[in-house]
Design brief:
The complex is a heterodimer of chains A (about 240) and B (about 350).
Chain A (H helix, E strand, L loop, with lengths): L5 E5 L2 E3 L7 E4 L2 E4 L7 E3 L1 H16 L4 E8 L1 H11 L6 E6 L8 H13 L9 E6 L10 H8 L4 E4 L1 E6 L5 E7 L3 E7 L4 E5 L14 E2 L7 H6 L12
Parallel strand pairs in A: 1-6, 1-8, 6-7, 7-14, 8-13, 9-13
Antiparallel strand pairs in A: 2-5, 3-4, 10-11, 11-12
Chain B lengths: L3 E7 L9 H17 L2 E8 L3 H6 L6 E6 L8 H15 L3 E5 L2 H13 L3 E12 L2 E8 L4 E5 L6 E5 L16 E3 L11 E7 L14 E5 L14 H15 L2 E4 L1 H8 L25 E5 L5 H4 L7 E6 L13 E4 L2 H22 L4
Parallel strand pairs in B: 1-2, 1-4, 2-3, 3-9, 4-8, 5-8, 11-12, 11-13, 13-14, 14-15
Antiparallel strand pairs in B: 5-6, 6-7
Helix pairs in contact in B: 3-4, 5-8
The chains are: A alpha/beta (about 240), B alpha/beta (about 350).
Chain lengths: ~240, ~350
């Protein structure tokens, strides 16, 4: 049990790549035309990170996976009904606007708040997974910002393969320029993997995930440690 | 007005020069400093930085550096600490850095420590009506955004191929070396080796003039009702060797390896071009056995001269996505091209005077 991991995967949802996207200027800034009507999917990069997390958790007994996702609640429900069929995890949904126009710093702050509030999460065994890019903004910084705020100093980007060694350390293949890999070894815990879309295979069906209540995404609700009240003035 | 601009770079793997993208981004930083009348400082990271600093002497900028064995190889903890130290020493309003894998890993964390804001994948940065405006793509290159921020410091990480590389005469540069103390937990990650992917040849060449894309058709049954994988592999590798092209693949082709189907042995997900793959910047592109569907062609956004070979005259390439579509069998076309290129190479060898 002591060698098990607590894996938190941060994943966003994006419009189906086959949809036509048209930018518009709304009262709250730039947005996509008919955004709420567009079919959504789990971000491909985050999807692979989730698969790797589920794969690692399946190999190491006692490990557990949480999926933290910030998106409008209706869209999140629609996507997670599909995703939950394919991997075992506990969902931590955050009812918030997080599209391609959202600021990565604001999204990172919301994610950090939600992760810190996960009950039963052992931070000394924490592995943080996520996509290093996305099919929306592709900021490429959200996961690093989250990890830095959580005090994680072992970060890896474009991870195509991670394997647990006999001594408990990890061997990591990070994708770098020219189609090469940089191989590295890391000891200890609390790491951030910025997974790629890459060598992963299709997720296998395991079992349906548990569902938790909406994590509070506004300061008022966070302070009270209760589900987000979804009042207009509470939306972050 | 932006008074203080910091250009950050790291020494490349050879330990003697800057990566090419860093020279391009330095050109953009110098242009911006001239536009806004600000002062430019240069921050360098690496095991040994004197030779690189000497090559930048003509820029006239003050040079600070964090150097030592701990900074030879990329590592988040040491790189973020080095970036933080250089920024604290220069207190810049704008930090401009190249989008190398090393910096994209560490810049965001350093920005967080400095309470700065960061934007990556920037394709241009310039002054517009007294304000700094950066451009970048959103939704996988489907729409372009202009970004302005009030917050400072502002980190801008620029992509490659977006600016002319800076060149200048080498000189004797004076470096202000900074000390960075690292705690023990910052040394847990150790470098092991660089490894090329499990392919028989290096097929990804970012500086190649031509992108050669192979689609799933190479692995499909041909006119005789059989697949010809060994022949396809030989033909493609010979073409890459003769032309110096970089190899790309469609998603359907690279996914086949994950589905345990017969595939081209040298094709990996690293080669994938398209909406969920790479968006390379080669001047020319040649697509073969690929239908040219929209999600794939999105990855061709920066490729200006496009040609395709496909048996289907109604494929996506024929609908305005390519300049020229050859309705032909790619096996035959590429084999013929290989013959012609082999003859040319032989002819050129004959023309070279023997000593």
């Amino acid at each position: 049990m002591t060698n098990s991991y607590h894996i938190v995967v941060c994943a966003g949802i994006v419009p189906d790549p086959l949809q036509t996207l048209e930018p518009i200027s709304g009262p709250a800034g730039p947005a996509l035309k008919n955004e709420m009507m567009l079919p959504a999917v789990l971000d491909p990069w985050a999807g692979h990170a989730l698969y790797e997390a589920a794969n690692l958790a399946a190999k190491v007994s006692g490990s557990k996976v949480w999926l933290v996702s910030a998106a409008p609640k209706a869209k999140l429900q629609q996507v997670m009904m599909n995703v939950a069929q394919k991997a075992s995890f506990e969902l931590v949904p955050i009812d918030a606007q997080a599209n391609g126009f959202a600021d990565a710093h604001a999204v990172a702050e919301i994610l950090v708040s939600a992760i810190q509030l996960i009950p039963g999460l052992d931070r000394s065994r924490l592995l943080l997974f996520g996509g290093w890019e996305s099919a929306s903004r592709g900021a490429g910084v959200t996961m690093q910002l989250v990890a830095e705020q959580l005090g994680i100093v072992d970060q890896f980007q474009g991870v195509d393969q991670l394997s647990v060694q006999a001594d408990g350390s990890f061997e990591i293949l990070e994708r770098i320029e020219g189609g090469r890999h940089m191989v590295r070894n890391v000891r200890g815990r609390r790491r951030c993997w910025l997974g790629p879309r890459g060598i992963c295979r299709n997720p296998k069906t395991i079992r349906r995930s548990e569902w938790r209540t909406c994590a509070p995404s506004c300061r008022h609700c966070r302070r009270q440690n209760r589900a987000h009240c979804r009042k207009t003035d509470c939306v972050t | 007005m932006e008074n203080r601009i910091l250009f950050l770079a790291h020494v490349d793997e050879s330990g003697k020069t800057l990566p090419k993208v860093a020279c391009e981004v330095l050109g953009a930083a110098i242009d911006l400093a001239q536009q806004c009348g600000g002062t430019l400082a240069i921050g360098l990271i690496g095991r040994e930085v004197q030779s690189v600093a000497d090559s930048l002497a003509a820029s006239g900028a003050a040079i600070l550096a964090v150097a030592g064995p701990e900074f030879e190889y990329p590592r988040y903890a040491s790189d973020a600490a080095a970036i933080e130290a250089i920024c604290r020493a220069t207190t810049p309003q704008l930090v401009i850095a190249p989008g190398t894998s090393r910096f994209t890993r560490a810049m965001a964390g350093a920005a967080q420590r400095l309470n700065a804001h960061i934007d990556t994948h920037i394709t241009s940065v310039e002054m517009n009506e007294g304000a700094v405006v950066a451009k970048r793509w959103l939704y996988r290159q489907r729409m372009e955004a202009l970004i302005q921020r009030e917050a400072r410091p502002w980190f801008l990480v620029l992509d490659s191929g977006c600016h002319v590389a800076w060149t200048g005469a080498a000189g004797a540069a004076e470096i202000q070396l900074l000390n960075v103390d690292q705690p023990a937990n910052a040394r847990r990650t150790t470098f092991c080796e660089m490894r090329t992917p499990s392919s028989s040849t290096q097929t990804i060449r970012p500086d190649a003039k031509l992108l050669f894309v192979a689609g799933a058709g190479w692995c499909k049954k041909q006119a005789d009702g059989k697949t010809h994988l060994p022949e396809a592999e030989t033909t493609i590798l010979e073409f890459l060797r003769n032309s110096g092209a970089s190899l790309g693949g469609s998603k359907s082709l690279v996914d086949q390896s994950g589905e345990n189907q017969a595939v081209l042995g040298f094709m990996t997900h690293l080669n994938q071009v398209g909406q969920t793959g790479a968006t390379p910047r080669h001047p020319k592109g040649l697509s073969t056995c690929c239908h040219g569907e929209e999600p794939h062609v999105v990855g061709w956004r920066f490729i200006n001269e496009r040609r395709a070979v496909n048996l289907d005259p109604n494929c996506g390439w024929a609908r305005g996505k390519a300049d020229v579509l050859y309705v032909a069998d790619a096996f035959q076309v590429i084999s013929k091209l290989n013959e012609m290129m082999a003859k040319r190479v032989t002819h050129e060898e004959e023309l070279v005077p023997q000593p």
